[in-house]
Structure formats: structure tokens, C-alpha cells
Amino acid sequence: MLTRMTEPDWEVVLEVFRAARSRWGDKGRDDRRFLEALHYFTVHNITWRALPAEFGCWNSVWKRFWRLSRSGVCEAFFQALAGLSRTSHLVQMFDSTVVRAHVSAAGAKGGSTARRLAALAAGSRPRST
């Protein structure tokens, strides 16, 4: 569909995904469409609600991803795929705990608001009711 994976690659990925899944519960309808939806979600950096209709209901995709990630299936799937790769040791992962933000990235406006309020009060007429 949207990925440029070959059919033999898809066969390997789907076999590993099915092996990583739990033996209990509903197995899902279309594993390939689900994995392509996850790929589209991450590559295009969109919200779940913005998933195209060709992947099915966005809420169903999200619920399935949430259940699989909580049960450890996603982690097992990625570990199994990494075990098949001869170059997996070259891949580096970053998360927000390693990347430091600049001080100005905190989002607060600088300066004191007390001085501005005092200047506004001094420049206005006295009011009474």
C-alpha cells in the first residue's frame, strides 16, 4: 500500500508479528493493514484521528495498538525483527530523556509582570463608584 516493502519482506514481517502476538483473545482482522496504519501514523507525524479511511476506523487502530503495546507485543515484535537484521546494532534510538532542551524552550515569558501592572496603575485616572 504505502510502504515500499516487497512481498517477501511483508511475509517475514507478518510472520514475526503473528509469532509475537498473544495466543489469547481476538487476533485482529488484517495485520498488514494495521502495520501499514502504524507506519503511516509515525512517518507522517499525525494524530490518530487523521488516519486515512483506507486503514479503517482510527479508533479501532488506536485501541488495537494500545492493547498490543500494553501487553508487550510491540516490544517483542521489534526485538524479534532486530534479531533478524544483520545491521540492527547500527541503529540508535533517542527519547526525550536523553535530549536536553534549551532554557528558552520552557515556554514561560521572561520578565516580571509586577512592574507592568504598577506602570499601568500609575498612568491611569483614579476610579470610584
From TrEMBL:
According to the entry, every stretch annotated as the Insertion element IS402-like domain falls at: 5-77
Task: Report the Pfam families cross-referenced here.
Answer: DUF4096 (PF13340)
**Can you tell which superkingdom this protein's organism belongs to?**
Bacteria
Name of the featured protein: Transposase
